[in-house]
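Sorry to interrupt, but I need a hand with the structure work. Could you add the entry underneath, on a fresh line?
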Amino acid sequence: MSRSAGLLLGFAADRLLGDPHRLHPVAGFGQLAARAEKSLYADSRAAGSAYAGLLVGSVAAAGVVADRLTRDRPIAKTLLTAAATWAVLGGRSLEREAEVMAGYLEEKDIVAARGRLGHLCSRDATDLEADELARATVESVAENTSDACVAPLLWGGVFGIPGLIGYRAVNTLDAMVGYKSARYLNFGWFAARLDDVLNLVPARACAVLTGYAAGRAGGDVADLAAGCAEAPESERGTGRGRVRGGARPAAGWDEHVRRRGRGPRLTRRRIAADGAGHPAYGVVGAASRVRRGAHRRDPGATPATYEGADMHLSQRPLRIALVRHGESEANLDKSIFERVPDHAIALTAHGVQQSAETGRRLREVFENEPVRVYVSPYLRALQTLGALGIDDLIGSTREEPRLREQDWANYQDTEDIEQQKKLRDSYGHFFYRFTHGESGSDVYDRVSSFLETMHRDFEAPDSPRNVLLISHGLTMRLFCMRWFHWSVRFFETLRNPDNAETRVLLRQPDFRYKLDRPFEQWTEYEPTERERSAWL
């Protein structure tokens, strides 16, 4: 009775509260697992089995101890089970992401939908159209319905607290190391196989529940049941994990039933010339409504188990550091623009000192591990790189013109530029275009193009765990605006970072990134919940 009540309370807590923004237990386990990987990693199945066995065994043992200590204390057991259930479920966050995607597709905002897809899966969305974006979202919702809702509740119902947290530990490790990459092919084999085994029954149960829910939502239950039975082997799952290249049990059954509930396969749909009334624009919202009809919650904590991805999430760098150049001659004397090209302005002695101090801090941030550098070709940025004093960590350096300063003019008329700055303040920093230069939106566009290049670089097997971008204040803010999909209104309130100041994007256990700290704001504006979620 205590177990059932605890599961219900935990489910209700997830429904009402969603994931905690800080100190999430699953995130904490992910950080612990990342540290353990550094110590235990070896390119062998034996090492991977020991790694997974140690972490999962420890978590499960803690669950057994907790279960036994509360055996004769029903209230304590109920509350502890409720806390564990709430910790392993994370459906509200994923449902919110699905609804955001539905909104973008219904509004036919394909650009925004492409940018938002990264919140759900690792697929390269650059060339995806509405039907493909809808399918990717439905696949993500389908797999995670099984992986982080039905499965933990099922194992929690059977084994109590040990089943809840033990399963979640396995699923998290699978998301971290269960990939067919050069690094994890052997090391992640055991975690991926164990996750596959634990999902065999929940995946099929999830398919049945989804069919029932779709029937209540107006679908054809008989057709859905037949679809489950007729699902091709490639969609049902074969028990082979990602490390073997086969379909995962959690993905195919539920996904197939969801697609049966919507008629033709999404990949066969095409957008009409005007896009009006196209079924792709409603399918994502329908998927989310099916989930609500089933009264099941999906995970927001570790949505990193996706098939068909062009890039494994585990290959993303742990840290992406942004650095503004040190103090330059132009920071002290604006008239220098009248006689020296912007790209040729050098650092001051103080700017060199600032950069050296930043380099010492970055060495600690990077934990003395290799770094890939992208640097603006402007002299002050190149001199900042040289002054950091981390040459021994740098594996490769690329001069990247798309990270340059905003183009204002050639040789600048100081008085004219000052007048234009005043106009920019009233017009808006993002949209105002200098007479012989760029607008903030122009810089945003080239930063967006650079991001595509950088993501392709992440796919390399030898991609380092640290990335460093040395650029300029406006470019840094626009990089973060593009990465986190901030609104123009929010961007307009942000101050430039100081010279040699940094912002670091830190990879979280769910493979999303958060800033180590926010930018300061110079006008009053309350960021939205989504905008606030960009930093720790």
Notes: The longest helix spans residues 130-159. The longest strand covers residues 319-324. The domain at 316-532 is CATH 3.40.50.1240 (Rossmann fold). The chain has two domains: 2-313, 316-532.
